[in-house]
Specification:
heterodimer, A: about 325 residues, mainly alpha, MetI-like fold, 2 domains, 14 helices, about 75% helix, about 0% strand, flat, disordered C terminus, B: about 350 residues, alpha+beta, Rossmann fold, OB fold (Dihydrolipoamide Acetyltransferase, E2P), 6-stranded mixed sheet, 6-stranded antiparallel sheet, 8 helices, 20 strands, elongated, ABC_transpr_MalK/UgpC-like (chain B), ATP binding (chain B), Sugar ABC transporter ATP-binding protein (chain B), ATP hydrolysis activity (chain B), transport (chain B)
């Protein structure tokens, strides 16, 4: 009895100190927070950081499908530098991104402004606008493929019926026709996303601001220029970043429509990378093309970041 | 500055008519308040003066000019909105200068006018701030500043104080009235708060369900309400209204209590009517009517007491301090110089 009584306190103290250390850790918000972060971190590392790192690494090797490569330094990039097809794809990607994004922005903004007015059947029209966005890309690409078909194109047929032309337009067979045709398809598909997002932004602008501006003597154009546009800039920055990134990395539409043809005229960097890496098996070279997209994307994000930075008028003030 | 004439103005949304022929004459430099419960059409009427709503019928004149088909910016009016409608991306100075910049006024003139308005309203130190960085009262002042800079013929205010807390509201009330006395610009002001109307207006227009119930100076409305609606709406706490009939001895309520009344038409004995007495016009009187105390609300300067008399609750306001506890009986009598009688059927005042 006496023995155990003497032992007890010692055991208890050691037990207690052990528990306190663990409890301390358990109670620490940082420690707990770390564990909450682990699943997200794991997913990000496994599915984003690792593939990205692997891609960059592959671009410095001569890996082929079925054969592990060795480190060859910048050799892939040197080849690409001298490769006319690569530079065509860079040109195409820039053209495709610039023209399509600009067109999507203008049309999307116009649609958003239109849909923000009191129209009959407004809800239905808003739903209709979303349709191009809901249709799977590949399906809409196939539809466009038929629309652009050299023999059965509905556009050629209609224009012929109208008597405006007497030959079929070679939409996808001619270099520039193919470029404009793919850009048009991309715009058709991308407009709803921009229109609906900008519409959401427009609806956050209080109608009384427009009334105040009307009384202040602003014309409709001045109301757009001085009220709508500045209040919409934050959301324009977000939506255009996404739009540029999606357009720059577009693959599906081109692959389904032209596979980069005719004679590489519509190859984007993404499709060229796929062709070189997967079809031709030159994993290293394909990876180098993909890696070459990174600086462009970073530049796009950088511009968006600049645009996204909170403006002075959005800061400060706790109420409202 | 200009007068405003509203002649038989009507407003309909489709088949629903919301304003049924309103006539109001506003003199040059007058401060007119449109007051009424929500949905009475007062804001709609203001927006019609501003040109933000179409006029379905009748005529609105600003000065000599009929403005029915004149676009808002050519009406030479300025409006202060309930939510202030400050442009969030512009500084205080830019907010105030916006209308002049649109007109391409020279910079020196803009600076001068903005500076002057800021001086009047005490905004000099806030000119570089954005609306988000201002308190409610300051935003309210900027909204007024924006109106002042325009130097318009008419100021329109649409419930400008309803987003402020009680204390600030009292302060801004004084400021707006002072501003009007200083600038002497014709002002039309919409509110649902009868205290605002009473304290600020030269002329009050009481509206209800799209018609004008009564129009006149604040004390005129208080002293001689034209009908039951105005009687109940103007004054705080509101007038006690008791149903019953006029008899030889006074006014007999449905509960059988006979109240002494003042002047009334000689031939009105037995006429069904409503008796009105303001809480502040009930006095303690040892020979008065017995009433049971229900609630006592001391407010310092005066005491508000709810009593039960003949089965009905009445509100009384006494200057004296009341020691009676709930359940006890006090004796009260109306000041017969200021009692009111209304026809039971039409609600019109009986003189």
């Amino acid at each position: 009895m006496a023995n155990s009584a003497a032992e007890m306190p010692a055991r208890q103290t050691s037990f207690r100190s052990e528990r306190t250390a663990w409890q301390k850790l358990k109670a620490s918000p940082n420690w707990l927070g770390f564990w909450y972060m682990v699943p997200a971190m794991g997913i990000l590392i496994l599915f984003l950081a690792y593939p990205l790192g692997l891609g960059v690494w592959l671009s410095f090797t001569d890996t082929k499908i079925g054969r592990a490569g060795v480190f060859i330094g910048l050799e892939n990039y040197i080849w690409l530098w001298e490769d006319r097809v690569f530079w065509t794809s860079v040109f195409n990607t820039l053209l495709y991104t610039t023209v399509a994004s600009a067109a999507k922005f203008v049309i999307g903004l116009y649609l958003a402004l239109l849909l923000n007015k009191h129209l009959p059947f407004k809800a239905m029209i808003r739903a209709l606008v979303l349709i191009p966005f809901i249709v799977p890309t590949v399906l809409s690409a196939i539809a466009f493929w038929w629309i652009y078909d050299a023999q059965f194109s509905i556009i050629s047929w209609s224009l012929r019926q109208l008597g405006w032309i007497d030959y079929n337009i070679n939409f996808l067979g001619d270099v520039w026709n193919a470029r404009w045709s793919t850009i048009f398809a991309n715009v058709w598909r991308g407009v709803p996303f921009i229109a609906i997002t900008l519409l959401a932004g427009l609806q956050t602008v209080s109608p009384s601001l427009y009334e105040a501006a009307t009384l202040d003597g602003a014309t409709p154009w001045q109301r757009f220029r001085h009220i709508t546009y500045p209040l919409l800039t934050p959301i324009i920055a977000v939506v255009m970043t996404f739009s540029v990134l999606f357009t720059f990395t577009d693959f599906q539409l081109i692959w389904a429509l032209t596979r980069g043809g005719p004679v590489n005229a519509t190859h984007l960097m993404a499709t060229l990378s796929y062709q070189r890496a997967i079809i031709a098996g030159q994993l290293g070279e394909g990876a180098a093309i993909s890696t070459a997209m990174i600086p462009f994307l970073l530049a796009a994000i950088g511009i968006a970041w600049y645009g996204l930075q909170t403006r002075k008028w959005q800061q400060g003030g706790s109420n409202e | 500055m200009a007068s405003v004439q509203i002649a038989d103005v009507r407003k309909a949304y489709g088949a629903t008519q919301v304003i049924h022929g309103v006539d109001i004459d506003i003199d040059d430099g007058e401060f007119v308040i449109l007051v009424g419960p929500s949905g009475c059409g007062k804001s709609t009427l203001l927006r019609m003066i501003a040109g933000l709503e179409n006029i379905s019928g009748g005529e609105i004149r600003i000065g000599p000019r009929v403005v029915n088909d004149v676009p808002p910016k050519e009406r030479d009016i300025a409006m202060v909105f309930q939510n202030y409608a400050l442009y969030p991306h512009m500084t205080v100075a830019d907010n105030m200068a916006f209308s002049m910049k649109l007109r391409k006024a020279p910079k020196s003139e803009i600076d001068e006018r903005v500076g002057k308005a800021a001086g009047i309203l005490g905004l000099d130190k806030l000119l570089d701030r954005y609306p988000r960085q201002l308190s409610g009262g300051q935003r309210q002042r900027v909204a007024m500043g924006r109106a002042i800079v325009r130097d318009p013929q008419v100021f329109l205010f649409d419930e400008p104080l309803s987003n402020l807390d009680a204390k600030l509201r009292v302060q801004m009330r004084t400021e707006i009235k002072e501003l009007h006395q200083r600038l002497k610009t014709t002002t039309v002001y919409v509110t649902h708060d009868q205290i605002e109307a009473m304290t600020m207006a030269d002329k009050i227009v009481v509206m209800h369900d799209g018609i004008v119930e009564q129009m006149g100076a604040p004390l005129e409305l208080y002293d001689r309400p034209a009908n039951l609606f105005v009687a109940a709406f103007i004054g705080s706490p509101s007038m006690n209204l008791l149903k019953g009939k006029i008899t030889a001895g006074g006014f007999e309520t449905e509960g059988g209590v006979v109240w002494p009344i003042g002047q009334h038409p000689a031939d009105s004995n037995g006429r069904a009517a409503v008796f009105g007495i303001r809480p502040e016009h009930i006095q303690l009187d040892a020979n008065g009517l017995k009433a049971e105390v229900v609630v006592v609300e001391p407010m310092g300067s005066e005491t508000q007491v709810v009593v039960r008399c003949g089965g009905q609750n009445l509100t009384c306001v006494f200057r004296e301090r009341i020691t009676a506890k709930p359940g006890e009986t006090i004796t009260i009598t109306p000041d017969t110089n200021v009692t009111h009688l209304f026809d039971a059927a039409t609600g019109k005042r009986i003189d």
